Structure formats: structure tokens, C-alpha cells
Structure to design on (666 residues):
């Protein structure tokens, strides 16, 4: 076994590899870019070396720098994770030349799978089933057209050098073929510098089922069963599971045998994945082989009880596979859901932002979370926007799926848009519950998976209202304490509070709808006028955002998390974002961005929370203005530094007076 390895990756996979190394007593060396100075993977390793600027090309893809760090740190091997350099034959070769073990397959195996046509020829010889089609060298359009006619339409033209859905074209009839071929060849030439194509029978809504294989340098090859990865969008997986639902034992055995044959045919060593597509009848065909550890490997770990990173280290160190085929068994069922910073409603557009709040479900023997980010970290444009992988396991598919849904509902991420709610809808869809997965799933059930936005329930509005009422009370208490005269009646409460018949109208913006909640103060609660009627509400708010709510005698727990003027409210399975809107101060947002803040109406300054030179964060309370018997907390709408403050507590101000100015601090 190695004493020390370098992990040439970042994020969750770097943390994942480091975890196993720690368990095995292997020291780890992290590499990081300038954007990742405080990243989790830097802390997860025993030492960390800066390798370059944020752009991956200049850091995580910089072979020379990484090898240099390996030498200087004394690492004996490099784990490439997935992505970046993991399937780069050139990198595997330079590692070998430098006398450093590349934790991955031999260069020859990576290269053998680089061309789809060549890979298919190898697999054909090894007796691995292929989609009917043509992958030969005669690339003349006339010949390819004859081949397509013989296969029967629809056919799929694929770039031989392509992968992951790039350079594919579906053709539905003979007349369309020639134009489609020309276009496919042009695309392939410009994208891959190689215009060779292959033609396949087009399978309608196939399943993506892949088999985990492992081989050592002593001639042993095993498979660790299959994963179903059919739930995809834009050729990217979102939910994976193991074993594949509805597979007969016969099919499972046949796939495992075919995958082992595929690995043996190319002299494979280490962790690999043989991808198949499967038609509705359960017939399966070789697609491609991924010569790395994959994102979704944890579901295989869950159902086999094995640690695949430990297997990789053992094999790379020259050891034999920990188990033989007849010692491997499937126990239970596992799911993985990939939580991405992306906007599912806008065609899964990647999102960026700072994770202001991150609440994850508790980890236990049923729930595992692989992540590389923590609260406060940024999701930037430089790297993959995956936030976390949620992995659940239980004795059977139904119970595991229930755990997946529960855990998805416990995820709270504030600061960037995520696909968590979308994942929960997939996991809750009756067709998914039935195991009816195929690669067309998201399209087929589009209507159910992308529902029209619904108005927040009374519960959510009550939680938002209570949050506002409790934080306003807290603000008042803090002001009283800070004023030096805590007993002054002016500081006791907000103006409206002592009057038991007084009320306060709260405004919440849902998209652009102004939702109003009138709150009447009562001795032991607030009486709220909600869309569905009046309800009495009381409760407690913890500093971490946990809200205990008593609504007409019913006790409920939820979360309210604030990010500037926006509130994220989670009540059970309902999650909603509302913007706290104060009609009287609303106009000030733009002015603040420009630098100065003016009084929206004549009144008296009740408290000033900041002074010149103070750094403020978006949402911080700056000062309190009392006007028309109400108090308005004026908050920063952007981060900055207070430039000057023109008034002190007790001063009268006229409408439009400049209260304070905020600058960028530069
Ligand atoms: C196919 C196919 C139908 N018929 N090949 C997409 C990515 C690449 N690995 C292969 N892909 C496909 N090849 C034939 N002959 C449908 C797809 C396909 C797909 C495959 C797996 C997972 C998701 C997919 C989404 C669309 C199309």
C-alpha cells in the first residue's frame, strides 16, 4: 500500500478519496487553484499545494504542475478522481515515465476506448452484444447510405471520436440521410478533428444500464453488478440506482458476464464501467466503457458493502482484488441523487452563487452525503456546479426510495437555485416509484415534473409572518440594550406593540404578487389574517433558523432562512421563497446600490446601528426610522462599507433627506 498519494481533483470526489485514505492510513496531498484557497478538499487532505489560477486549464488540468507537486511532496501515486485528467492517456503515460503510479487503467486501455468504432470492433470480437449497425472503415456516403437502409430507420449517426451524446444525429428516413451525414461529419470534424462516424439502429427510449467492473494485475476480473442511470437531462445523470429495477437474474448475469468479457478484451486494470443501452424487452447492447471511477460509484458501494476507492488503491499498489466474483452479493437497494446548482425550470441552466445557508439531512447507515462544499462557499463558473450527492440505502427499493424523498426534503440550500425540488418530484412520481425508468423519463413526464408555481400555503405565510414579527421584536430588544437606557419606554418595543388592539400589515412578494398578512398583537400570540382565514400563531425562533410554530394549537416545525430581504421558508415538503417587502422603503433599493439612502417619509431616527467605516453585508440593519407610528428598519441591499452617516438617534428628518451613504470600500 502507498504511504502518500496526490489527489489531482477538487470538490466532493477529492474529499471522497481523502476519506478512504485517512481510513487506510495513507497520507494525502491536495492540489488547489486560486479559486479554491478555502475549499473543503484543501482541508480534507494532509497537505495542500497551490497549482495555478482558477481556470481548470491552468490548474487542475496542468499536468506539469501536478507532477511537480507529486515529486516535491513525495507522493508515490496520483488519484485523478473523475473528469479533469482521469481519462487522459497522455497523463497516465507521463505519470508512468515520471515513476509515479497513475491510479487508473493502463494507457493502452484508455486509448482502446477512445474511438467508438475501434471499441466496437474489439467488443464484437469478444462476443459482447452490439447495437445492430456499422462501425467499419468504408466511410463513403454511398456505402453508409446502403448500410442505413439495411439497418432500417430510424438510425443514429454517431461521431466515432464523440462521447456523452456529442456529435449524434437521428435520421428517420432514406431521404434525410445524406444531409444528416454531411452535417454529422462536419460537426465531428470541427469538434473532434476526426470525421469518422458509425451508424446504429436507433433504439427508442432505451434504458442506460452500466456495470461496474474491477480488474487487478494478476489476471482477476470481477463485476460489482449494475447501476441504472436512465434519469438524465442533457446527457447528464441526475438520479442513479443499484440494482437496476425490474432486471431478471438471467439478464443481470448476462450483463455481468459481458462486462467482464469487455474488460478482459482490452487488458483492463482497476475500476471501470461498461455502459449498455437496454431496450424495452431487456435486450442490452454495449455503448462505451468509462475508464475511471464514476460519480455514481457510491450506489454500488452501498449494495455490495465495499469501498471502491480502497479497491483502487489495493489494485494500483499491485495487490489482488479483495473479493472474488462468488464472494460478491447484492444487499438491498441504493439511490443517488445529484444536487446541482441549476435552474430546472429554465432548461437546467447552471446557476452560481454563494451558499448562504446549507442544511443537510443527518448522515447514518441509510443516508450518506458526499459533498465538497460547505455553508459560505461559492459555486463559481469555473467548475462543475454539483453541490452534493445524496446517497440512500435500505433493504428494498420502496423503502430506499422513501428515504430518498425524505432526505431530499430535508435539504435546504439558500443562495443559489438548485434542482432539489425537481429531484423530489422525480423521486415522488408514480412512474418512478413503479421502477418505470428510461432515458425519455423527464420528457415523458414533463408536465408533472415542472408544475405551475403554486401560491404559498397559509402555513408558509404564517411562518414568514411569525419570523418577521419575532425578528422585529428582537431588533427592538437589541436596540434597547444598546441604547444605554434599556428602561426607556421608547426602546421597550415597537410602537405598535403595547396597544393590544393595534395591528401591523406585512407584505411578502411571491414572484411579483404582493401577499399581505395582517398581524394583530395579542398578549400570548399574534392573530394573523391569512388568505384562508384567521389563525392564532406563536412560537420560537432559533438562531439557526429553526422555527417552532404553534398555529391554532397545532405544533409545527419548519425553517426560515434569511438572505438579504428574501426568506426561504420550509414547512414539511413545502419550500417557498418570499421577498419581504416594505412598500414604504421599497424605492430605496436602487438608491442604495448607487450609494446613498434617503428617508422615504418624514420622521424621527430611532436608532443608528452603523458608523462610517463599518463593513455591512446585504440585509444588515443600518438604522431605524420611526414615521407614522411605525418603525422601519432600513437594511443594506448590497454588501459595502459605510461612507458617512448624516444623523443620530433622536434627529428629525424630512422626506428625501440623505440618511447615509454606502460605498464599495475602495
Ligand atoms: C443511442 C440511443 C439510441 N439508440 N444509441 C446518448 C449518449 C451516448 N452515450 C449514447 N446515447 C444514446 N445512444 C442508439 N443506437 C440513445 C442514446 C441516448 C441516451 C443514452 C443513454 C442515456 C441517455 C440518453 C439520452 C438520449 C439518447
Amino acid at each position: 500500500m502507498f504511504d502518500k498519494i496526490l489527489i489531482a481533483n477538487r470538490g466532493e470526489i477529492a474529499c471522497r478519496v481523502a476519506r478512504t485514505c485517512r481510513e487506510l492510513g495513507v497520507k494525502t496531498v491536495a492540489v488547489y487553484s486560486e479559486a479554491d484557497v478555502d475549499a473543503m478538499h484543501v482541508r480534507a487532505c494532509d497537505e495542500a499545494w497551490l497549482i495555478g489560477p482558477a481556470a481548470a486549464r491552468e490548474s487542475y488540468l496542468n499536468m506539469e504542475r501536478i507532477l511537480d507537486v507529486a515529486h516535491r511532496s513525495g507522493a508515490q501515486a496520483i488519484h485523478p478522481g473523475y473528469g479533469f485528467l482521469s481519462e487522459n492517456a497522455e497523463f497516465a503515460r507521463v505519470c508512468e515515465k515520471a515513476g509515479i503510479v497513475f491510479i487508473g487503467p493502463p494507457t493502452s486501455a484508455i486509448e482502446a476506448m477512445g474511438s467508438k468504432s475501434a471499441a466496437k470492433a474489439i467488443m464484437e470480437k469478444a462476443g459482447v452484444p452490439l447495437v445492430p449497425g456499422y462501425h467499419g472503415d468504408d466511410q463513403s456516403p454511398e456505402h453508409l447510405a446502403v448500410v442505413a437502409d439495411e439497418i432500417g430507420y430510424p438510425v443514429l449517426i454517431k461521431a466515432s471520436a464523440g462521447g456523452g451524446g456529442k456529435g449524434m444525429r437521428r435520421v428517420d428516413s432514406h431521404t434525410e440521410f445524406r444531409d444528416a451525414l454531411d452535417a454529422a461529419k462536419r460537426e465531428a470534424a470541427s469538434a473532434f478533428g476526426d470525421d469518422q462516424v458509425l451508424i446504429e439502429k436507433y433504439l427508442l427510449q432505451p434504458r442506460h444500464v452500466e456495470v461496474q467492473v474491477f480488474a487487478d494485475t494478476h489476471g482477476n476480473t470481477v463485476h460489482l453488478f449494475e447501476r441504472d442511470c436512465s434519469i438524465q437531462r442533457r446527457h447528464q445523470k441526475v438520479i442513479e440506482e443499484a440494482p437496476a429495477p425490474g432486471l431478471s437474474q438471467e439478464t443481470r448475469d448476462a450483463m455481468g458476464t459481458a462486462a467482464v468479457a469487455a474488460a478482459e478484451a482490452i487488458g483492463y486494470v482497476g475500476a471501470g464501467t461498461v455502459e449498455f443501452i437496454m431496450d424495452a424487452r431487456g435486450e442490452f447492447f454495449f455503448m462505451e466503457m468509462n475508464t475511471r471511477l464514476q460519480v455514481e460509484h457510491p450506489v454500488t458501494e452501498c449494495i455490495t458493502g465495499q469501498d471502491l476507492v480502497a479497491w483502487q488503491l489495493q489494485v494500483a499498489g499491485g495487490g489482488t482484488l479483495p473479493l472474488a466474483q462468488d464472494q460478491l452479493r447484492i444487499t438491498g437497494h441504493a439511490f443517488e441523487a445529484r444536487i446541482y446548482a441549476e435552474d430546472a425550470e429554465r432548461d437546467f441552466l447552471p446557476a452560481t452563487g454563494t451558499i448562504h445557508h446549507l442544511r443537510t439531512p443527518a448522515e447514518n447507515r441509510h443516508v450518506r452525503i458526499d459533498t465538497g462544499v460547505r455553508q459560505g462557499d461559492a459555486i463559481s463558473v469555473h467548475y462543475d456546479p454539483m453541490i452534493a450527492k445524496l446517497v440512500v440505502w435500505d433493504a428494498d427499493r420502496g423503502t430506499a426510495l422513501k428515504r430518498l424523498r425524505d432526505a431530499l426534503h430535508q435539504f435546504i440550500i439558500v443562495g443559489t437555485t438548485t434542482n432539489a425540488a425537481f429531484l423530489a418530484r422525480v423521486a415522488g412520481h408514480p412512474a418512478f416509484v413503479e421502477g418505470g425508468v428510461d432515458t425519455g423519463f423527464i420528457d415523458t413526464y414533463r408536465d408533472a415534473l415542472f408544475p405551475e408555481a403554486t401560491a404559498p400555503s397559509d402555513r408558509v405565510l404564517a411562518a414568514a409572518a411569525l419570523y418577521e414579527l419575532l425578528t422585529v421584536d428582537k431588533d427592538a430588544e437589541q436596540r434597547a440594550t444598546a441604547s444605554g437606557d434599556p428602561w426607556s419606554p421608547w426602546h421597550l418595543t415597537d410602537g405598535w406593540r403595547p396597544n393590544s388592539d393595534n395591528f401591523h400589515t406585512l407584505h411578502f412578494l411571491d414572484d411579483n404578487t404582493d401577499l399581505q398578512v395582517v398581524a394583530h398583537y395579542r398578549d400570548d400570540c399574534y392573530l394573523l389574517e391569512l388568505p384562508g382565514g384567521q389563525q392564532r400563531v406563536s412560537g420560537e425562533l432559533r438562531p439557526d433558523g429553526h422555527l417552532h410554530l404553534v398555529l391554532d394549537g397545532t405544533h409545527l416545525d419548519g425553517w426560515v432562512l434569511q438572505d438579504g430581504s428574501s426568506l426561504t421558508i420550509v414547512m414539511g415538503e413545502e419550500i417557498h421563497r418570499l421577498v419581504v417587502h416594505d412598500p414604504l422603503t421599497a424605492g430605496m433599493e436602487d438608491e442604495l446600490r448607487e450609494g446613498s439612502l434617503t428617508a422615504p417619509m418624514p420622521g424621527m431616527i430611532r436608532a443608528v446601528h452603523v458608523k462610517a467605516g463599518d463593513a455591512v453585508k446585504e440585509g444588515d440593519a443600518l438604522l431605524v426610522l420611526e414615521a407614522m407610528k411605525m418603525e422601519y428598519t432600513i437594511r443594506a441591499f448590497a454588501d459595502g462599507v459605510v461612507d458617512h452617516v448624516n444623523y443620530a438617534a433622536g434627529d428629525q428628518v424630512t422626506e428625501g433627506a440623505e440618511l447615509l451613504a454606502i460605498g464599495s470600500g475602495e
User: Anything to note?
Assistant: The chain is about 30% helix and 35% strand. Confidence is low (pLDDT under 50) at residues 488-500, 587-592.
